Amino acid sequence: MTKPNILLFLPDQWRGDWLGFFGNLPVRTPNIDALARRGVVFSQTWTPSPICAPARACFATMENYDHCQVQHNHHDMDPASPTLYRSVQEAGYKVASVGKIDLLKGKMDWGADGLHINDGVSAFNQLGFTDGSDSAGKHDAIKGYEDGKAEPFLTFLEKEGLAGKHVDDFNRRSPANPPTSVIGSQKNIYPVPPAYAVTDLSPLPDHAYCDNWVGRQAIELIGQLTRSAEPWFLTVNFAGPHEPVDVTAKMRQKWENIVFPDPKLWNGTDRELHQAIRQNYAAMQELIDDWLGVAVKTLNEHGVLDNTILIFASDHGDMLGDYNLWAKKFPFEPSVHVPLVFAGPKIQARSKYVDSATTLLDLAATIVDYSGAIRPGPAGSSLRPELENRETEPRRAVSGLGSWRAISDGKHKLVAGWKDDQIVSDIEHGIWNASEARTSMALFDAASDPFNQKDLSTEKPEIAERLWADLLKEIKKPQDVQPEGRTS
């Protein structure tokens, strides 16, 4: 049979619980909801690491965090490394990307064309991409511009005469986290950082807003790819809803009277500000959902919708003031939990969510499976059995950053090595020490205690010990890995 096309929407910093179909928040995601109705939702999916570059590098290489070459946001991938993208290309696919891939940002050598060309060689192409380009994330684009480094989105804004306005606006909206200690989940009483606290409007017109720019590129690429004889895999990497919480007037006006639940485990201050932040975050999500709707319509117009697997996910979540914390890096669910929704050929709609523990590495393995590619790394297990309503073995999800690791079996969650006296900016540079981590294990009920308030490790030591053993097994690199993949 013909191999399916694969369209992956992978926005940045989208919380796993902020989706309309869950019904617990006044968010509007009708197009993602439509995918959920005709496909499969994995409701307990984790990122392998809750920070941009490691999460995306783990996904690209199919390595868990402990064996990924990218350990924090200051590391770049070696573009010659085996990647999911190159493997899928070698399986006969066109492989394309738009927006930020965050695998090569350290050198800031995007170039105006986003191809990372040095000495005549494109690192973007080396990673396995045949079409598209790579642009910088929200903050890196500003830093690159000020350092004289060309980058596609700011190059576009320069041509529009808007670069200076955008840079000045974003400089009001940094940093994303205050330079202060993490002093325990309910004791952080410091001002909301500017990346969230500055909620006023972007000076950009709608056509120049970054995610509209990314969306237009994605639709154009879909048109190009559908004219190709080969099957294709396109990743659309929106900049939002990553902070800063900048929105245009058109985006904002739909949300001004919408009331959100207050943050969880928060000190109770700045309620009006928290509402504005959450409204802007939801507005950024709604815009991305709109572009998903345009993409589905475009696929249908080109006659390829029935042969395209559609996937919606994110690289990590956002604390959004829960625990009085912001952004990511933490072992708490708002940080590690991400969306994962599938729809497409052979995928059987389910009336209930799949609540087994899964990760973005399982997503990577699923793409390998459906494309018939050879997996580039050992981590992750295909979700194809669940997608085709077949039986499967129990799963584990592992996430980590710096000195902490967490594991879930879908029923219980174990956190080890977390230290609540760290400076936020230092978390990603911590060092894992299994002996030390074992003395600080905490066990939580995944269903009844999603905000991890009651440590059950002394009440249920047998479960804690089992998950600890599973964690050590999961982060130990297999010595021999058999290539996996099949055509369909």
Radius of gyration: 21 Å
Please, what is the average pLDDT?
93
In angstroms, what separates the terminal alpha carbons?
Answer: 6 Å
Helix content class: 25-40%
- Major beta-sheet overview: 7 strands, mixed
Give the CA-based shape.
globular
Q: What proportion strand?
A: 5-15%
Q: Give the strand line-up of the largest sheet.
A: 2-11-9-1-8-4-7
Would you tell me the structural class of the helices and strands?
A: alpha/beta
Q: How many beta-strand segments?
A: 16
Query: Total number of helical segments?
Result: 16
Poorly predicted runs of 5 or more residues: 478-488
Keywords:
single chain; about 500 residues; alpha/beta; seven-stranded mixed β-sheet; four-stranded antiparallel β-sheet; 16 strands; about 30% helix; globular; disordered C terminus
What does this structure look like?
By secondary structure, this protein is of the alpha/beta class. The chain contains 16 helices and 16 strands. It has a 7-stranded mixed sheet, sandwiched between helices. Strand 13 (397-401) and strand 14 form a beta hairpin. It is globular and about 60 Å long. It starts with a strand and ends in a 14-residue tail after the last helix.
Question: Which helices and strands appear, and what pairs or packs with what?
Answer:
Blueprint: E1 5-9, H1 30-38, E2 40-41, E3 45-46, H2 52-61, H3 84-90, E4 94-99, E5 117-118, E6 121-122, H4 123-126, E7 131-132, H5 138-146, H6 152-160, H7 163-171, H8 194-197, H9 210-226, E8 232-237, H10 249-253, H11 271-301, E9 308-313, H12 333-336, E10 337-338, E11 340-343, E12 358-359, H13 360-371, H14 384-387, E13 397-401, E14 404-408, E15 412-416, H15 434-438, E16 442-445, H16 461-474
Parallel strand pairs: 1-8, 1-9, 3-12, 4-7, 4-8
Antiparallel strand pairs: 2-11, 3-10, 5-6, 9-11, 13-14, 14-15, 15-16
Helix pairs in contact: 2-13, 9-11
